[in-house]
Specification:
Length: 105
């Protein structure tokens, strides 16, 4: 199982630019921050069969190449991604989880 991850503030910006409603953006950012999908995948498939991949600064093509190589070469899964230490204050969390102003273009 491959779980694509993205740093929550970058995810927030991406989803906001795509025009998603603020509630959907916040729900997705919260889920990414605490690793809901990664935890569900690990529970279903096991840690050894779940690969988390940080796509924050990757293109889809480069992410696909790295994932394919890891699977082909049977590389062990890297450590789990944990965004929480980066949001260690109320100010940072409030900024992350507050709705962004709507952007156009």
């Amino acid at each position: 199982m491959v779980v694509l991850r993205c740093e929550p503030s970058v995810l927030k910006d991406r989803l906001s630019r795509r025009g998603y409603p603020p509630v959907k953006v916040t729900d997705n950012v919260e889920a990414e921050l605490i690793g809901v999908i990664a935890a569900d995948a690990t529970a279903a498939f096991g840690r050894g069969r779940t690969l988390e991949f940080d796509t924050t600064s990757s293109t889809p093509e480069s992410a696909a190449r790295v994932i394919a190589r890891r699977i082909r070469d049977r590389e062990p899964a890297p450590s789990q991604i944990d965004w929480l230490p980066s949001y260690d204050s109320a100010r940072k969390l409030k900024s992350l989880l507050s709705p962004s102003p709507l952007r156009r273009g």
